[in-house]
Write a structure and sequence with these properties.
heterodimer; A: mainly alpha; two-stranded antiparallel ribbon; 4 strands; globular; B: alpha+beta; 6-stranded antiparallel sheet; 5-stranded mixed sheet; 1 helix; about 30% helix; rod-shaped
Chain lengths: ~450, ~160
């Protein structure tokens, strides 16, 4: 009995307390803003009864906590609260933004509830991952080529879908598949995890050789090409297809994961140097070849306040979203307008790509700093799990999965702030979207499992 | 008693952001305690390692030469490991340039010692020839080359 109590995940329960309070405070705010006639706010806000199911978030998180106590009592206790607070932020923002989205896309009154259901499925998938790996993670390693093949199939589905349906390439979600009315699925989200498993398994097996370095070309060291073959093939297939699909952000993400896993595995800067060099060359080539890449970069260089008759059509056209996003971030100031009191839905597709701008507007610089700190804690925790893990494969897997979170967060926030060309990558756990939430929770499940095997 | 809406909303606004910061502070305390515990554990493990018997070395194949070995393959080391062409060796390398008893690796005084057994084409450790009949200590990461100066087989030491 005492042993059982000692095993209980008290720390996780303690840490979950404040996120739950945050959810409650957020809901009280939304209700108060809705019922009062402050005259500050003109947009639509969720009604009281649509808010009550949001209490489900707290229930779902506590249920996961209890399930983890039974399934995996020795797993890391900090991961779930961090991820929980981020997801709560996501549900809260979806609740708040949904009814306010202007036509033709909106209003979507049940956006928050949809996000809650995705969260429920996500946490369930997380627990399912924990159960599926109860006999260890080695089977993931054994089936590495199966995962590579699955990745190729996923990419193939996207490609066939895009090529056969004549979709507008400029639409932000053209790689989504419609499974059922209102249910879309992005194969690329699962592709990331397949690739991390493959890269980690392959690099772990050939680590000693990769660490040794290869032949020398004149005086520049060259990677050992024989060991690099399968890696480069996979990388080339995914990158080519995504450049073909015009998912530049995803291509960047995959490349970033590849480089970080190689670097973590070999501890040699040689590969990063070659990788960045090739990437710069490839990027330059794409810039010369494809008009849409140039258009993306043109947007980065634009001044949103310009009245120049040559620039105004761009601000009204391709740069409209990003300029509106910057206005939203700016109008938040240091302290923010307060939840429900801003006007973030002036930004197109604010609920997924521009959720960062919406949070900056309503929570201000202080809130955004806290959000970034949460991501930093998440990444720190992930790398700590990686460094404590036993065996090269589990270490690289944990490092790679954490790398996904880190690179994804960086790409989308830099895109929102106009520091980098904007790409349609979701902010992990916060952006509205089912596929990304589920894929992220698979990663969390794997990290929890890795953290539990470390202490054995 | 009913608080005016504007004031209530202002308070809620502060509470919302304050809650995230409180959570972060709580998080930092937990993580800090965790790191301190890990640090203490690592120190204890270091103390224990000196008394433990540390036989657990291995060789990693770097260049297999004509041998049917895969680069990256690990060969575990016995406290006395002999390498050569003869069938009695721990690691048998079938190549005419390898002597029948080529090299011996022994574990002594918590170190691995490499010894050339009078081979025709010599043994090299990190490019330096191992003098016949003398033992040279090898550290993890050292490269062990058997055969002529360009090497038939290359191994890397690991512990």
């Amino acid at each position: 009995m005492i042993q059982g109590l000692r095993q209980y995940r008290w720390r996780e329960l303690q840490l979950l307390l404040l996120p739950c309070l945050f959810m409650l405070a957020g809901m009280v705010t939304l209700v108060k803003v809705h019922t009062s006639n402050t005259g500050v706010k003109t947009g639509n806000l969720p009604t009281l009864d649509s808010l009550i199911p949001a209490l489900g978030v707290i229930g779902v998180l506590l249920a996961t906590h209890i399930a983890l106590t039974i399934l995996l009592p020795q797993a890391d206790q900090v991961l779930l609260p961090i991820v929980g607070l981020l997801s709560i932020m996501g549900v809260l923002m979806a609740l708040r933004l949904g009814p306010d989205i202007p036509p033709p896309d909106g209003p979507i009154d049940n956006l928050g509830i949809k996000q809650l259901i995705w969260l429920l499925i996500g946490l369930f998938v997380c627990l399912a991952t924990v159960v599926a790996t109860r006999k260890g993670l080695l089977w993931l390693r054994r089936y590495k080529y199966t995962f590579a093949a699955a990745g190729i199939v996923l990419v193939g589905i996207s490609l066939v879908h895009v090529l056969t349906s004549h979709i507008n390439f400029n639409s932000p979600n053209h790689d989504e598949l419609n499974l059922a009315p209102g249910v879309t699925f992005q194969p690329s989200e699962l592709l990331k995890i397949c690739l991390v498993i493959f890269f980690a398994a392959y690099v772990a097996e050939n680590r000693e050789i990769l660490g040794e370095g290869g032949p020398k070309l004149w005086f520049i060291p060259v990677p050992p090409l024989k060991q690099f073959g399968p890696l480069l093939t996979m990388l080339a297939i995914s990158l080519l297809l995504f450049v073909g699909l015009r998912e530049l952000g995803l291509a960047l993400l995959i490349f970033g994961i590849f480089l970080s896993i190689i670097y973590l595995g070999s501890n040699r800067f040689l590969y990063v140097g070659w990788g960045l060099g090739l990437f710069a060359a490839g990027g330059l080539l794409c810039y010369k070849l494809f008009g849409y890449v140039q258009a993306r970069f043109q947007v980065v260089g634009i001044n949103c306040n310009s009245h120049d008759p040559k620039i105004v059509p761009i601000i009204q056209g391709p740069a409209f979203q990003i300029c509106q996003g910057l206005i939203a971030i700016g109008s938040g100031g240091v302290f923010g307008t307060g939840l429900g009191l801003g006007n973030p839905t002036a930004v197109p597709v604010v609920q997924s790509d521009f959720i960062f701008a919406a949070i900056s507007e309503e929570f201000g610089l202080l809130g955004v700093m806290a959000l970034l700190a949460l991501y930093i804690m998440l990444i720190h925790r992930g790398f700590r799990i990686a460094s404590n893990a036993k065996g090269a494969f589990t270490q690289l897997l944990a490092g790679g999965l954490t790398g996904i979170f880190a690179i994804q967060t960086m790409i989308i926030i830099a895109g929102n702030l106009k520091l980098m060309p904007l790409t349609g990558i979701p902010l992990p756990f916060v952006s509205y979207g089912g596929s990304s939430l589920i894929a992220n929770f698979i990663s969390v499940g794997l990290l929890l499992r890795i953290s539990a095997t470390e202490s054995n | 008693m009913d608080l005016p809406t504007a004031q209530l909303l202002f308070i809620l606004r502060i509470v919302l952001v304050a809650l995230i910061y409180l959570f972060l502070i709580q998080l930092i305390f937990v993580v800090r305690r965790d790191l301190l515990r890990v640090g203490a554990g690592a120190a204890a493990a270091r103390g224990g390692a000196t008394t433990r018997k540390g036989v657990g070395g291995y060789l990693v194949v770097v260049k297999p030469g004509p041998m049917p070995l895969r680069p990256g393959h690990r060969l575990g080391l016995e406290p006395v490991t002999t390498i050569g062409r003869g069938p009695t060796n721990t690691i048998v390398l079938e190549d005419s340039r390898i002597s029948s008893e080529h090299t011996r690796i022994t574990y002594r005084d918590k170190l691995w010692w490499v010894e050339d057994l009078g081979s025709r084409n010599k043994t090299f450790l990190n490019g330096n020839q191992v003098p016949t009949g003398q033992s040279v200590p090898a550290r993890p990461g050292d490269l062990l080359v058997l055969g002529p100066a360009d090497g038939v087989v290359t191994f890397k030491f690991g512990v």
